[in-house]
Amino acid sequence: MSSKESSKDKKKPELLHAEKEFYVLEITNLNRTIARLRTVCAELENENDDCKKKYKTLDQDRNDVIAYLKKSLTQKQDEIVDFTNRLEAMLKEKKTEIQKFETKIQEMERKYNDMSSTLTAEITLLNGKLNSLEEFKLQKDCMIKKYLDLEETLKKEAERHLEKETIIENQSLIHKESMRLDIEKKLLNLSINLQKDTQYRIAETTQNVVKENIALNNELNLIIVSWQKLFDQNEFLKNRLKTLSNEIDVSFETKDNLLRRHVIQKEIIDRLVTKQQEMMSKFHTLKNCMTNASLLRKKVKEYSKKANDANVKYRKIEGAFHAQSIQLAELKTAFDELKLHNFKLEERIKESVIIIKDVIGLGLRRQKDPFSISEQDEYSTRINLLNTLLKLFDDVSLFATGEAISIEGSNESLLVSDWKRKVSSQHLIPCDSEPSIVDEMQ
């Protein structure tokens, strides 16, 4: 019996030493996996911080872009409304002005036609009067020439008549003197003859003297009648000259009046021409206003097109924002899943730490009091603890989506590169840092 007990006592420390080495190796492997998980968590936290910063910047940029686009869209809409109101007001004003100008143009055309017809009639009359005035000028020139010729002839005749009168007066005086002398001679002769003749011849001489006196009186009467005729003709020519001069003055006055009227009518025609030019300039300004209105319409159409483009862009941005919000929701769900996965990992690691502590505690209790726990109980508890550890790691490997976490003795490996790529591509926000398990173990 003693030999069996001694052999058993020898086997027990060997088993304890092997189990201790096994557990130490397991603990080192677990510490390595925990360290690797910590590095992965740190990298995920860094990527989470970067993703948070990028998300904040993207959110700020998106908000700024959306605010700017909304502001620009409201400004464009206000500008479009303002332009449409201004265009409607300008179109109404243009319509009223066009109607006014059309009525004015019609009135001015009617007045212009009336004035042109009246002025053409008056111009024809004036042309006729001018032609008549030219004929009158010709007749006037002819009459003036005739008048001058008559004046010259009258002067010549007056001079000739004066000469004749002087000659006749001289002749009459000479004739009277001669007659007187003859009469005196005859009287002397008669006196002599009277003395010589008798009273029988007195009657014959008296009769001859009476006859000669009658003849002289008749000649004097003829001279007086011819002089009176010449005087009357001279007076008639003077009166005719006065009437002709008056007619010439009247013709000059009528000519001046006609010229004044012609000048006034010419001024009226010039005013009408200037008014017509002003109306034409206003009409051209109206045409320019119409062209400006068409240009403004084109600009309004362009602004409306720009507004539609801006609306389309805004809708695109809203679609992109909606897509980003959907992507953000997906990322949040993925983040929640990752957080839950990390939480479950943390729980499993805590449970594994507790199990490892229990295993280490069993070894310490065995060292302190070797008879407190039997070998079978210790072995069964260790096997149970190892089974629970294996189950925990099996559960952890089930939680890893798209990765494989394998623990193979001393050459264990943690494959989390796929998960990191997925997190970095989707800009996930991982959970907070894990508590240090090594500190708890220590």
TrEMBL record:
Q: What is its main location?
A: other
Record carries keyword Membrane: no
Instruction: Provide the alphabetized UniProt keywords.
Output: Cell projection, Cilium, Coiled coil
Coiled-coil regions listed in the entry: 27-118, 293-348
Residue intervals passing through the bilayer? none
Gene Ontology molecular functions: microtubule binding
Task: Report the subcellular localization.
Answer: Cell projection, Cilium
Q: Which InterPro entries match?
A: CFAP157
Cellular component GO terms held in the UniProt record: ciliary basal body
Entry-linked PANTHER family? CILIA- AND FLAGELLA-ASSOCIATED PROTEIN 157
What family is reported? Belongs to the CFAP157 family.
Protein name listed in UniProt: Cilia- and flagella-associated protein 157
Q: Which organism is this entry from?
A: Nezara viridula (Southern green stink bug)
